[in-house]
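Tutorial handout. Part one gives the primary structure; part two gives the three-dimensional structure as tokens.
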Amino acid sequence: MDDTKHREEEQVMSNEDDSKGSICGYDSLHRLLKDNLKPHLFHEVSRLLTGLNCGKPLETVVLPELASTLSAEHGFDLQAFCFQADKELLREPRVVRVGLIQNSIALPTTAHFTNQKKAIFDKLRPIIEAAGSSGVNILCLQEAWMMPFAFCTREKRWCEFAEPVDGESTEFLQCFALKYNMVIISPILERDINHGEVIWNTAVVIGNHGNVIGKHRKNHIPRVGDFNESTYYMEGNTGHPVFETAFGKIAINICYGRHHPLNWLAFGLNGAEIVFNPSATVGELSEPMWPIEARNAAIANSYFVASINRVGTETFPNAFTSGDGKPAHADFGHFYGSSHVSAPDSSCTPSLSRNRDGLLITDMDLNLCRQVKDRWGFRMTARYDMYADTLAHYVKPDFEPQIISDPLLHKKSL
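Part two.
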């Protein structure tokens, strides 16, 4: 397929996605409120919805002209914000610039698999260039970014998209990591060549020298609605690793793991300062939970959380059902984007668009993590020994819940 036809199909898909997923014609709740509330009302509503960072509204960041030009030429949403920390006497600020990319697929799912992957690479290239030219230190892509999220279909042919950790997606991104001195988190469908070619849902961490630092495999696999992912891969076996990079200690809580508070906790116990949550989730299933879970995790664990979700509606060649009584259908629903960053002090950025590709750039002073720990004392006041004892009993077959019943509960009244 020639490049002209690629661009035409991409434009058709882009126009279709722009018409879907809007909120009363607006591509985010933040923009809807800003355009329809008087300034003083919007200021107060924004304070309640996104919080205050060090007692002030979150500040925006001016980006290089090249990033704005690329955004205009390629039609992706571009936003940038800055999280401050209080000035300290003994520590210098530890400011890290983080970038998050959300995107729709680039070609219909009926296109040849090679063309689909190449088109996604081509689509992401200018967005990654915008991130790199803006001085992003750590960049994270969405879950299974190099393919359509086909795990609803249960068709095994989509396994052809799987690749080893050092495969073509890693090679594609290593060039940008070297060019821009940037750590890149690349969530892929992994094929483990050394262990029977088993497939995993994996995030590859590429260092700022282009080296592969390591990988993390998805801990929790959904079995809800159309998310039939255990047809393709099972729960990961890499624990809760934290990767010490040139720019801070990072971890990756892949998609469905955000519903499990102990998953968030374990990354925090291992010392994470930023936890990325690359996802693929649809509006009908999870959108009311989306702005809550990440923000709660950031507060409870005193770290930053970077949430990324893909965009658009992906239609597959064959209709499928998922045992939930719904008629056969050919798509998951709308992936609502809305990528955002949450800080440990309960503040958060506005979200990217619900229906457009986007790049969110956020400066964060990692000193804020310790400052919040000192202020709230969550680690100091936690009762890990008590929790550990409860969990140790819970996993045993003879576990009995600690319930104290009212002795009069089942007595007949006189």
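Part three, for discussion. The chain has twelve helices and 17 strands. The longest strand covers residues 183-192.
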